[in-house]
Amino acid sequence: MDGTPLAESVSIVLAGNRNAGKSSLLNAVFQKDVAIVSPTPGTTTDPVTRKIELGRLGACSVTDTAGLDDEGELGVQRIEKTKERLESADLVLFVSPQDKPVTQSEKELLSWLERKKLVYIGVNTFADRTADESKLHFFPTGKSVTLCTASGMRPDITPLLEKIESLENAIRRELTPVEGIVHEGQFVMLVTPIDLAAPAGRLILPQVETIRDLLDRDCSALIVKERELYDIYHSLGRKPDLVITDSQAFSKVAADIDDDQKLTSFSILFARKKGDPLYFIESLRALSRFPKGGRVLVMEACSHHRQADDLGTVKIPRLFRQLVDSEAVFEHTRQMPEHPEEYDVIIHCAGCMITQRMMNEKTGIFKTNGVPVLNYGMFLAWANGLMPRALEPFPELYGAYVNNY
To answer: pLDDT, tens digit, for every residue of 162-174?
Structure first.
């Protein structure tokens, strides 16, 4: 990897009406032309994302979006794409031309941001023009900056950058993979199978992030494949403080290490990092109550070429039919279902390619509809008889399981 993944960057989304100055602002932030600027309304169609380092915030992704007042059939679709990006934003830059009256779409966006309790900054553009009376007090006190975005010149965005950095503590950060479960000087063994699904020449993202997190915490990491695990583990002079495995190798790994060895999986690390692990644990009840011939939706957050023995389309359905219901009906998707209430359980991937906010938005919809949700790691740990052992490194999750089952 040669950069911070988008899912691990602070997500900054520019939003506002057409011709509000969003693309000009994006170019100003990057100090070069990364977006097309034109007086023609609707120049920006699909969201445009670029990566940047912003002071104390570190790695950020900045996304320019279509105008919220777009028109026509395509305009409706563009607005939906904009709303999707806003749902997952860590920080919204609400761009509004100060020389134009407040519009209904702007009122609705401000109300939505306040209702969702999202972190935002109002950016009043075109400061070189006379301000409309309705814009003078549109944004709450202390939540806006004013910039001169006259055509053909780069605005001084120092006030905006200072405002962004001042919100460092207000922007919610995701846990890192091993945060709170390992300490300086500890020794961790990582079991990383190299099979058909493994990307050529590299490790998958959860493995890479976990290795880096261990190094940042001054821990030692030993990486092995499952075939070599038994010999290497039993030849060690020092027992690992923790073993972390790919979920698919749970059963073999558990058989090859000591019974009292602390063990978990990358997927469970990411259940805690990206999702709502307590709801995942609660949802395990659905497996014992699953109706005959019920419907299961397997969801993935990223696009990859499925192999012959794919986890989501082959291995999980096979295990589910062996252990839960031989007549279960499986469907697979990489998009939110229109009618989640039609499913008896949803099994989601680890979510390494999306943000925690995005995962929580999905889970919130499922909760509202009363649909149980598991992630790959939780299901596979249960299927391999490793509950609650796989939760031992996480006292809160372990206690939740023990108290409920």
So the answer is: 999 899 888 877 8
Tell me whether strands 263-265 and 242-245 are parallel, antiparallel or unpaired: parallel
Query: What is d(CA 24, CA 33) in angstroms, rounded to the nearest whole number?
Result: 8
Radius of gyration of the chain (CA): 24
Return the closest-CA partner of residue 43 out of 72, 62, 65.
Answer: 65
Helices 266-274 and 205-216, packing angle to 10 deg: 80
Distance CA 218, CA 289 (A): 44
For residue 405, give the amino acid letter.
Y
pTM: 0.76
Which ranges constitute the DSSP H helices of 42-98? 72-87
Residues lower than pLDDT 50 in the chain: 1, 42-43
**Which DSSP string do the residues of 219-265 spell out, in sequence order?**
-EEEEE-TTTHHHHHTT-SS--SEEEE-GGGHHHHHHHS-TTS-EEE
CA–CA separation, 262 and 157 (whole Å): 50
Measured distance CA(324)–CA(288) in Å, rounded: 7
* pLDDT tens-place string over residues 228-238: 999 999 999 99
